[in-house]
Inverse folding.
């Protein structure tokens, strides 16, 4: 087994490169790990029952081999990639799968995943698409139902105190991640977007306690850095699943700095804390349903719906935005033109990339990114 | 040129029908759009709607005129008029792989916004400008997301509503109370929204009577549907793909109740007299999951040249049976419970059958009940919701019927550019050879 570094960003990088290795190690030692999708799964439930949450990821650029026998070619390429990896046995260390009904692809994946992979534990979690008062009550009930089934699986119960402790641990990750993101505000930022991806992906594959330690070390390490002496064009990337550093590396190697994100795998997964003054399940329902993803309906015009992006742009002094959507993703593609309108209304240029979760277009991306950066540069002049 | 002639398709795209009832639909559809346009002129409230959202009775009770936008996109495809709207949506920045219906609908409203008037020569006179947009989560994401996207072109009030689809392996007794409660709250939210917008109060007695009428309508459609199990098949899927229109788009109209009573009588007569779709029915096919290629429906007739009839389908399915519990007096509670029971019926039967996924369960039931010899599924590029799971469904069918031929026909619901007639016919030729061999092996 490859050796994973012990501390800080080097550890984050190793966990990113060798994702799953630490989880397999834990499984060998008898820990149970539950695989999950999306930022909408309340992972605190797993932690409260001493289960390790493991976010299921695909492999950008790895050709789909076996999944074609089960999933159509026009299905979300990220979902196909995840399922392909699972079929290859790479996720055999998982004791279960929780697949939230967040979008059409996830909803339909559940039956297929369970039918062919037969995980010891499985549940589809219905995440409301609406945000009416009754939606929060319903989601709390659905979370309770998931908790009850998890308790039956591990043959123990989670008390309110267990849940609260788990919430506090995950809230701590959120606080630390936001602290790390603060270090992207300086010009040039103290930590690159590529390094952020390593830390984020690492966090999806290890127990929360280990992640918190990793983040504390990383913050200390980054804080001691001396800033670069030259400035870079500051970009924000918005999209869904970015669990690979290729795209961000291409952008940063072209001379820009990705200083902020609006990604499922990024800020969206940790920006809000769970309110600990509420009953645990109610707090979880509120926190998770309030994640600003296009799959959830939020009333209002673009300026209202995307105002959080405006805040990011202002606070992180963003000069341009990369909108990245995965092909066949209806919810993103239905939002993208309005999101583009909104960002442009703030006076910022937008680069729109639609991708099939592959590395094939890296050369194309590079050309487009360079042209985009030139546009920003010429505007500044 | 007369208005009606002007909106006829540039080339014939429809399929052959075997029932007189199906022959009435074109007139019903024309009248439906005309009535909606008149309603708008008369300042009655008009809503953009999605089928199967469980709000039809509520809208009828509140005198809101329903315009089904997905189906208008289908109409545009039938008339080969969809492309202009899709191109407009793409020019507005929407992806060319976005739901085809949504592309047509957004393109249509973007164009109307640009012109400040109805797009010229819109099929059947076009959809009137709505007073409200009523999406729902049932079926797929674009069915509510599309209306949100229209906010780019209009300030029309929106009520997007949750309609729950319970997970296939749930403990249905455990989840029923809170699933039904949420659905009921969503419906009450809709009523409050409509009361505010129309200035009218909901008449709950009227609503209850409409619910009962609707269930009677469904009962007659189901009775007619059951007659289709007869050999030879008294009607085909080609007929079904127009006969669903009154149910899906004019559900609360009293005409619809009479229509399905009439369909039942017609089919009964055909069954009693052994009148089939074709004279010599050799093979019985199932049109599996997948919305049909509205732009080229005539391709379904090509199967008939081999003596094959589409005896049943799993697209635009008839709702599951539901008996109104006598103790429920609140029509909102009733609609909510009905939605839960209907939307979990296939799941329950699949679970009882040992873990068969609901979509596959629907196929297996029809294969058994309609004596099916082979299955055709339509892979639709712009409709992932109806496409994802087709291979899986084929695999599950093969677990039960190892050699049953299954064909995946590839094109789209509206985009004719994705369709190759020559390739499709070649594929059908090969498929029918497999059907012939399969049928022989079953003897």
């Amino acid at each position: 087994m490859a050796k994973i570094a012990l501390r800080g960003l080097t550890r984050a990088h190793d966990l990113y490169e060798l994702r799953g290795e630490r989880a397999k190690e834990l499984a060998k030692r008898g820990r149970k790990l539950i695989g999950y999708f999306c930022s909408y799964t309340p992972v605190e439930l797993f932690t409260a029952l001493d289960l390790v949450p493991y976010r299921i990821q695909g492999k950008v650029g790895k050709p789909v081999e076996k999944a074609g026998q089960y999933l159509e070619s026009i299905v979300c390429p990220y979902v196909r990639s995840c399922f392909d990896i699972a079929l290859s046995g790479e996720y055999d260390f998982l004791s279960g799968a929780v697949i939230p009904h967040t979008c059409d692809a996830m909803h339909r994946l559940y039956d297929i995943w369970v039918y062919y992979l037969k995980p010891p534990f499985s549940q589809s979690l219905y995440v409301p698409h609406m945000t009416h008062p009754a939606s929060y009550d319903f989601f709390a009930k659905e979370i309770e139902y998931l908790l009850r089934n998890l308790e039956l699986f591990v043959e123990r119960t989670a008390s309110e105190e267990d849940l609260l402790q788990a919430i506090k641990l995950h809230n701590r990750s959120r606080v630390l991640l936001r602290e790390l993101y603060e270090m992207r505000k300086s010009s040039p930022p103290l930590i690159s977007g590529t390094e952020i991806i390593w830390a984020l992906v690492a966090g999806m594959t290890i127990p929360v306690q280990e992640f918190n330690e990793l983040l504390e070390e990383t913050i200390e390490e980054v804080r001691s850095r001396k800033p670069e002496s030259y400035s870079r064009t500051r970009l924000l990337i918005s999209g869904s699943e970015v669990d690979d550093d290729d795209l961000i590396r291409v952008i940063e190697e072209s001379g820009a700095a990705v200083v902020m994100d609006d990604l499922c795998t990024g800020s969206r997964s940790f920006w809000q804390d769970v309110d600990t003054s509420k009953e645990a399940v109610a707090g979880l329902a509120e926190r998770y349903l309030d994640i600003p993803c296009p799959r959830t309906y939020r009333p209002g015009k673009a300026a209202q719906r995307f105002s959080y992006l405006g805040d990011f742009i202002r606070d992180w002094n963003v000069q341009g935005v990369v909108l990245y959507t995965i092909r066949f993703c209806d919810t993103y593609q239905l939002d993208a033109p309005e999101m583009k309108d909104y960002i442009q209304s703030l006076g910022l240029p937008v680069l729109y990339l639609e991708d099939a979760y592959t590395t094939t277009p890296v050369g194309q991306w590079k050309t487009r990114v360079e042209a985009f950066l030139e546009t920003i540069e010429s505007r500044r002049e | 040129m007369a208005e009606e002639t002007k909106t006829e398709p540039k080339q014939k795209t429809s399929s052959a029908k075997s029932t007189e009832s199906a022959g009435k639909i074109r007139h019903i559809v024309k009248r439906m759009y005309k009535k909606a346009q008149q309603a708008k002129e008369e300042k009655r409230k008009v809503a953009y709607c999605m089928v199967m959202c469980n709000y039809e009775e509520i809208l009828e009770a509140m005198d809101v005129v329903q315009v089904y936008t997905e189906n208008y996109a289908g109409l545009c495809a039938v008339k080969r008029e969809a492309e202009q709207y899709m191109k407009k949506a793409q020019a507005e920045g929407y992806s060319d792989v976005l739901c085809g219906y949504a592309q047509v609908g957004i393109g249509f409203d973007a164009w109307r916004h640009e012109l400040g008037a109805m797009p010229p020569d819109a099929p059947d006179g076009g959809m009137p400008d709505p007073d409200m947009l009523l999406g729902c989560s049932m079926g797929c994401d674009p069915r509510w997301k599309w209306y949100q996207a229209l906010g780019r072109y209009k300030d029309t009030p929106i009520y997007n509503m949750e309609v729950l689809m319970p997970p296939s392996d749930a403990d249905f007794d455990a989840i029923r109370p809170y699933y039904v409660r949420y659905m009921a709250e969503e419906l009450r939210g809709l009523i409050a929204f409509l009361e505010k917008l129309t200035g009218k109060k909901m008449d709950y007695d009227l609503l209850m009577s409409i619910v009962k009428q609707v269930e009677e309508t469904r009962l007659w459609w189901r009775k007619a549907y059951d007659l289709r199990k007869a050999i030879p098949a008294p009607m085909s899927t080609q007929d079904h793909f127009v006969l669903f229109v009154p149910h899906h788009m004019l559900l609360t109209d009293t005409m619809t109740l009479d229509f399905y009573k009439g369909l039942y009588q017609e089919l009964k007569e055909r069954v009693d007299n052994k009148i089939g779709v074709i004279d010599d029915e050799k093979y019985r096919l199932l049109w599996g999951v997948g919305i049909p290629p509205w732009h080229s429906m005539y391709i379904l007739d090509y199967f008939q040249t081999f003596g094959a009839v589409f005896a049943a389908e799993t697209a635009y399915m008839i709702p599951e049976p539901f008996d109104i519990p006598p103790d429920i007096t609140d029509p909102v509670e009733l609609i909510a419970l009905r939605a839960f029971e209907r939307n979990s019926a296939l799941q329950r039967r699949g679970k009882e059958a040992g873990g068969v996924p609901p979509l596959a369960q629907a196929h297996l039931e029809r294969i058994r009940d309609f004596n099916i010899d082979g299955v055709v599924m339509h892979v639709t590029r712009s409709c992932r919701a109806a496409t994802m799971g087709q291979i899986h469904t084929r695999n599950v069918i093969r677990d039960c019927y190892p050699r049953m031929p299954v064909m995946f026909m590839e094109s789209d619901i509206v985009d004719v550019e994705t369709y190759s007639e020559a390739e499709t016919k070649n594929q059908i030729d090969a498929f029918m050879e497999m059907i012939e061999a399969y049928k022989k092996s079953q003897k």
